[in-house]
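Complex record, two chains
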Amino acid sequence: GEDVEQSLFLSVREGDSSVINCTYTDSSSTYLYWYKQEPGAGLQLLTYIFSNMDMKQDQRLTVLLNKKDKHLSLRIADTQTGDSAIYFCAESTDAGNNRKLIWGLGTSLAVNP
Amino acid sequence: EPEVTQTPSHQVTQMGQEVILRCVPISNHLYFYWYRQILGQKVEFLVSFYNNEISEKSEIFDDQFSVERPDGSNFTLKIRSTKLEDSAMYFCASSNGVADTQYFGPGTRLTVL
């Protein structure tokens, strides 16, 4: 079945770049997403990439997609303490009137001053 | 900016009781979803809803669960007879089109005692 895997923890120093990695199994994935969850809060969409793209940049965020290896990464430039959160990778496939998301377990990012 | 809202933020109930979790999706959205996140586990898809009917449901979504859009704004998840293992954070999401990004509410934390 479909599966999404992420490393559980990442610790960086403020000002450094963070790279969060994700792998997925479903080769028919059409969209791949990054969501952010701050403590006690909901799931906030950060960015997404369509499967026919290999890179997307949005301010400090860069998403890289290697479709051959089914590998997705999120790079956060100049990481700030406010970026400390759990980052979820999720994928969806085109399935008629439904586009359920399959989620990774989340990567907990700790940013140290 | 429009957002998905959910009430209550926290619900405590006794095992065997019925609960109704409420969501108000973004007003022009047509596709609605429920997900849940058991503590320490992945976010799991429960059900998707479009055009006043269920589009897809997961194995978790058994006869104890039901969804309804009782009016033009609310989308509810009912659990008829709660079990201890139903304790989780329940997230509602909506999207404008089936291929569009899902926007999530802040979640309802359900605790079954």
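Note: The radius of gyration of chain B is 13 Å.
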